[in-house]
Amino acid sequence: MSSPAGAPASRIAAFAEHASGLTGRRFGVASLEEYDALWAWSVEEIDSFWSAVADHLDMSLPGPALAEERMPGAVWFPEARVNYAAAVLAGRPTGEVAVVGVTEDPDATVELTWAELERRVAGLAGTLRALGVGAGDRVVGYLPNTPDAIVAFLATASLGAVWSVCGMDYAASAATARFGQLDPVVLVHAESYVHGGRTHDRRDVVAEIRDALPSLRATLTVGTPAWEDAIGAPHPFEPVPVPFDHPLWVLFSSGTTGKPKGIVHGHGGAQLEQAKVAAYHFDLGPGERLFWFTTPSWMMWNFLVGGLLTGASVVTYDGSPAHPGVDGLWALTARHGVTVTGMSPGYVAAGQKAGVGPAGHDLSRLRRVGISGSTFPASSHEALQDDLGPHVQICSISGGTDVVSAFVGPVPGLPVWPGELSRPLLGVALDAFGPDGSPVRGEVGELVVTRPMPSMPLMFWADDDGARYHDAYFDTFPGIWRHGDWITVTDRGSIAIHGRSDATLNRNGIRMGSGDIYEPVEALPEIREALVIGLEEQGGGYWMPLFVVLDDDIDLDEALIARIKDAVRTHASPRHVPDEVLRAPGIPHTRTGKKLEVPVKKVLADQDLGGAYDPGSVDAPELLDWFRRVGRERRAALGR
């Protein structure tokens, strides 16, 4: 357990004092007990809580916070008029740095002051307005993670138009599977992106995307003289006030087993929720600097942009996390004076196996390390904490594209237990439900949210009757958000995340999340990555193979197989020792790095992934063919 100092001076402590003054109750965050009392108030008196947040963060949101409580369809701040871009840019110190743009070439770093960011946003907004873009129109981006992507988003949002973006590693088919649903009027794109020491030319892909979008009125190419004219046009910054629930952006689901779902969030909900998390749970504000390794395809890009709402500066990065070495993100964090840096468990584990990490880098400004994307093994957490020292808090979070935020995560100054997340975040009425819909403690349950959050989706795109939205979250427990993750709420109130409930391992009625298997297996030095699948078979059988990826010079011999099984038996569960350990050429992932557990389970069973499946949504789609062959060969050997 680690418990970094800093709670008394934190922004969440200031909010607790603010809430005390409003309610006449005594709130604080100096202990877990004090935080739990503040959290309980935040989910029991939800209208008062969100009004207090808006007041404390200087947001002008008049009237009731939660005018109508229902899920789905809660009505938030119906009297308010807002604009996300205005909230980002209002009242900032003009000469201070807002955005730092970094590539694999350190000499190519770009810094934008708040004044320059506003000037570019205003210029591009004026250009878009001249192209006929107005409230509700869709503007899409095919872009790397650079300051230009932030400018394009904020300019779009300032007009009340709707933004959507894909990173440039997406194939044309994957991008058009998303953008084609939106009938966009403008495409903003770059011509290339950087990764692993190479510049990847994507002009042919851009041409294919453009040809597939007949609704386009114009395209704008970043890095050209026309782009410089577009962002340099002398226009005043005139953001359009819109209702709290006016659509801000469309984020898309992975699209690996069906047509990508367009998840629509509102200006006010995204602004309020993201500012709360950034300010109170990551203690971000003026003078702080946020970096998170991400691409524009992943909701962590939206989370990164949300850091600007607090007045903090943000760092964008177009490149590989392991360039020029495995410790590339630590070097970037040190070089740019980052105070909160974010990365994936896989990146941390790769560095630990390679024997490199934060050591040797000047991280004197670093106060928090965010972890997201998958479960973070306790062993990795412990080793990273030893490297960083007790003054840096490790901040694992869990949430999703669905709410473009987190449900659970850190509290400044309060304990963090390896392998667990400290607490539900303020305003998140999180619980764990058993199959009968009652709360469970100390055992695995479904992650549910029992009261609305402002950033829950307004709707799914082109889901006119709301049926897809309802079925995605509310079909299991009526009126209760079921997220699709297995969690355990421990006796001390922390939360352990076990993985997706649709990929649950259920052997002999005993459930376990795949993340509990990956932690001990991927800690073995020979294992680069692992994938475990639980497959129901004919006649009531159950096959649970474990696929492992090894370096070429490592043999999967009986001794290694025995060590793998012993690791699962000892550190996870003797009931979930795999039936077989098989060497795989690789593990397929979504473009945001999540293992394709459910699609692999389907192809092992020789099921059709559906006509809407798009290989462009997967980093290595050919691997699915390999897994399908494995399933077929197994059935043939068994005479099925």
UniProtKB/TrEMBL annotation:
<dbReference type="GO" id="GO:0030729">
    <property type="term" value="F:acetoacetate-CoA ligase activity"/>
</dbReference>
<dbReference type="Pfam" id="PF00501">
    <property type="entry name" value="AMP-binding"/>
</dbReference>
<keyword id="KW-0067">ATP-binding</keyword>
<dbReference type="InterPro" id="IPR042099">
    <property type="entry name" value="ANL_N_sf"/>
</dbReference>
<dbReference type="Pfam" id="PF13193">
    <property type="entry name" value="AMP-binding_C"/>
</dbReference>
<feature type="domain" description="AMP-binding enzyme C-terminal">
    <location>
        <begin position="523"/>
        <end position="594"/>
    </location>
</feature>
<dbReference type="InterPro" id="IPR000873">
    <property type="entry name" value="AMP-dep_synth/lig_dom"/>
</dbReference>
<keyword id="KW-0547">Nucleotide-binding</keyword>
<dbReference type="InterPro" id="IPR032387">
    <property type="entry name" value="ACAS_N"/>
</dbReference>
<comment type="similarity">
    <text>Belongs to the ATP-dependent AMP-binding enzyme family.</text>
</comment>
<dbReference type="InterPro" id="IPR005914">
    <property type="entry name" value="Acac_CoA_synth"/>
</dbReference>
<dbReference type="InterPro" id="IPR045851">
    <property type="entry name" value="AMP-bd_C_sf"/>
</dbReference>
<dbReference type="GO" id="GO:0005524">
    <property type="term" value="F:ATP binding"/>
</dbReference>
<feature type="domain" description="Acetyl-coenzyme A synthetase N-terminal">
    <location>
        <begin position="35"/>
        <end position="86"/>
    </location>
</feature>
<dbReference type="InterPro" id="IPR020845">
    <property type="entry name" value="AMP-binding_CS"/>
</dbReference>
<dbReference type="GO" id="GO:0006629">
    <property type="term" value="P:lipid metabolic process"/>
</dbReference>
<dbReference type="InterPro" id="IPR025110">
    <property type="entry name" value="AMP-bd_C"/>
</dbReference>
<dbReference type="Pfam" id="PF16177">
    <property type="entry name" value="ACAS_N"/>
</dbReference>
<protein>
    <submittedName>
        <fullName>Acetoacetate--CoA ligase</fullName>
        <ecNumber>6.2.1.16</ecNumber>
    </submittedName>
</protein>
<keyword id="KW-0436">Ligase</keyword>
<feature type="domain" description="AMP-dependent synthetase/ligase">
    <location>
        <begin position="92"/>
        <end position="452"/>
    </location>
</feature>
